[in-house]
Specification:
Length: 518
């Protein structure tokens, strides 16, 4: 208890104020604390005995606080005064009701990989899903129930060990719902669709604390909204998703390291290979990064590319022949069980994409085909920026190419996910934690790269996949340009979250219509 000394003092003073005299009806005691300093001890006392044993409530003084609030990116850090880790799903509704009675803002955190600027506006209680990681395979073995705190690594391994797979993100460090409520790209989307397409039923706690089940017959309007814009509507305590027999026991991978003189050939071959959205389903995910690798060059960014195929080497290498001919400086290939593929592609939980607590300046774009001219411009600007600021060799310019059949064969009107025509997902990232004075320069570069991607497809409007968005984009870029989508989402917000509690992750409803500048 020693670690609570500071907050205890403050809490006791408030507690005394509350317990004098006859108990007031709770609507008169609406704001017992100010948001400047939430009394952790008081919250422990009041909320602690309402929620189940094993739940944790702690503030900044506690030894668990640093790890519970660590984030992948320190670009936009929410102000977390108190962390509550519910032990049971039924606790979440009680926590939200308690927050509402006491005017405490709440913010759900699962794996802390959110990268959007909006979370910096938050000040209040973190509802931390870390203890809710249960997985149950249903008796008929066609689907499973997953609690709201599950993430890629445990889902992939648990199911594989039982003979099954399901849709997840590609990076195994991210949650299922952080990605899934906004779409959710992963290696099974070519076969089964995005994570959002696979949310059969959701147990949801609404903004007012009511716990409901959302499915095709119960709150179907919310099911539509939560498959693509779900972060705006509620807290998912668990969900049901289909599971499938795991298929090929081994996946083939092939990674290439190319020098920049091969850039045009690489992108021309990629366009032929993907053929504008006709990628073979088994060619689950390839992605490539312009980045620095001093084992190859001290001065020039390389083009690193990785392919993962659900099937044999023989089948995969037939498709990869054009890439084998280009001439890589280095390459490696092999065959491994599916759960090892994330590590090989750099997206495993211990891989180089996952470490947290760094400051990422990012931007994104959604493309249909690669524009070779634009890619050359983007590559050449790396030289410009790194000459100007040698610190900027922390850059990654990521190009993702999934197989897309399972995404494009769904009716786009059936869910809030708006970008089924984007066959490629782009992500720019430069890390600046060691030289924060270069933040604005990094931002200028991120925006410039995004603009070059978008200028490369003048016939299309700019899209920013909501989970890669940095929060500076207009709302249409995140939720779709068709006016009916936003109208429908705004109506549903008015119905289910009229006070806009869920507004810290690329909100549909914003306080003003100006674009943010961070
Ligand atoms: C290293 C890295 C890899 C990534 N890989 C992929 C990928 O492979 N595929 C992909 O599609 N995206 C990917 N993304 C983007 C990713 O979808 C988002 O960053 C996502 O928000 C991360 O979810 P999280 O649980 O890790 O983060 P958190 O910050 O914990 O959650 C993000 C937001 O999701 C909401 N949320 C989380 N859990 C719940 C819940 N139970 N109920 C309601 N709302 C909830 C909250 O609004 C929260 O602010 C990646 C991002 C990073 C940084
Ligand atoms: C939807 O949820 C309701 C309420 O829990 C339930 O009665 C119904 O069986 C569910 N429908 C489906 C298709 O699962
Ligand atoms: C790609 O396909 C879409 C239709 O899905 C079409 O509108 C577009 O013109 C095609 N692009 C190219 C470069 O062929
Ligand atoms: C994050 O990094 C900062 C320095 O950049 C350090 O002070 C802090 O302790 C780190 N936090 C965690 C949780 O590692
Ligand atoms: C490719 O990008 C260049 C540079 O932005 C642009 O001028 C050109 O029109 C684009 N090509 C196509 C086919 O869109
Ligand atoms: C909570 O909100 C939902 C959706 O607006 C509504 O149906 C329900 O009656 C509300 N519950 C309470 C207790 O007000
Ligand atoms: C913001 O945009 C909405 C929808 O486009 C519009 O109805 C509203 O009037 C705008 N508000 C301001 C302050 O411009």
């Amino acid at each position: 208890m020693k670690s609570f000394t500071r907050v205890a003092t403050c809490g006791l003073a408030l507690l005394q104020a509350l317990v004098t005299g006859t108990p007031l009806p709770h609507y008169f005691e609406h704001v017992p604390f100010t948001r400047r300093d939430l009394p952790v001890v008081q919250i422990q006392k009041e909320l602690g005995h309402q929620i189940s044993k094993g739940s944790l409530i702690f503030g900044p003084e506690h030894r668990r606080y640093a790890s519970a609030t660590e984030r992948w990116s320190t670009f936009a850090v929410p102000k977390i005064q108190v962390v509550v880790q519910p032990a049971k799903e039924s606790d979440v509704s009680k926590i939200v009701k308690y927050c509402n009675r006491n005017s405490i803002e709440f913010y759900v955190v699962n794996r802390g990989h959110s990268i959007t600027s909006g979370s910096a506006d938050f000040n209040g209680m973190q509802i931390d899903m870390a203890s809710l990681t249960g997985i149950t395979i249903n008796r008929h073995k066609k689907s499973g129930w997953f609690q709201g705190g599950v993430y890629g690594d445990i889902v992939i391994n648990y199911l594989w060990n039982h003979g099954y797979v399901t849709t997840t993100g590609s990076c195994t460090c991210v949650g299922l719902l952080g990605p899934g409520l906004g779409g959710g790209h992963g290696r099974f989307e070519g076969r089964y669709g995005m994570v959002s397409d696979n949310l059969l039923q959701l147990n949801v706690v609404l903004a007012n604390g009511s716990a409901i089940t959302v499915n095709e017959t119960s709150y179907p309007d919310l099911l539509w909204a939560m498959r693509g814009a779900g972060h705006n509507f509620g807290i998912v305590t668990s969900f049901e998703a289909p599971i499938h027999p795991r298929g090929a026991p081994l996946w083939h991978y092939h990674n290439y390291f190319w020098t920049q003189d091969k850039l045009e050939t690489v992108f021309e071959e990629l366009n032929k290979f993907h053929n504008n959205g006709s990628t073979p389903v088994e060619m689950a995910l390839n992605f490539g990064i312009f980045r620095f690798d001093t084992t190859i060059s001290e001065t020039e960014a390389i083009i690193w590319w990785t392919f993962a195929y659900q099937g044999s080497e023989e089948e995969a290498e037939k498709l990869l022949e054009p890439f084998n001919k280009i001439g890589a400086v280095r390459e490696d290939s092999g065959d491994v069980p599916y759960p090892e593929i994330p590590d090989i592609q750099g997206t495993g939980i211990g891989g180089w994409l996952c470490p947290g607590n760094r400051t990422h300046i990012t931007s994104t774009a959604g493309l249909q085909v690669y524009n070779v001219t634009a890619e050359r411009q983007i590559y050449d600007r790396i030289g410009h920026w790194v000459t100007k600021h040698p610190e900027f060799t922390t850059v990654s310019v990521v190009h993702e190419g999934y197989s897309t059949e399972g995404v494009t064969n769904k009716n786009p009107a059936d869910s809030a996910y708006p970008f089924r025509d984007d066959h490629h997902l782009m992500f720019f990232d430069v890390m600046v934690e060691r030289f924060p004075h270069l933040k604005d320069e990094a931002r200028a570069w991120a925006t410039e790269t995004m603009d070059l991607w978008n200028s490369g497809q003048p016939q299309r409007l700019p899209n920013a996949y909501v989970n890669y968005a940095n929060g500076l984009e207009p709302v249409e870029w995140q939720y779709g340009h068709e006016p009916w989508r936003l109208e429908r989402l705004r109506k549903l917000k008015a119905k289910y979250d009229p006070q806009n509690h869920f507004r810290y992750y690329n909100p549909i409803i914003r306080n003003d219509n100006t674009t943010r500048t961070y």
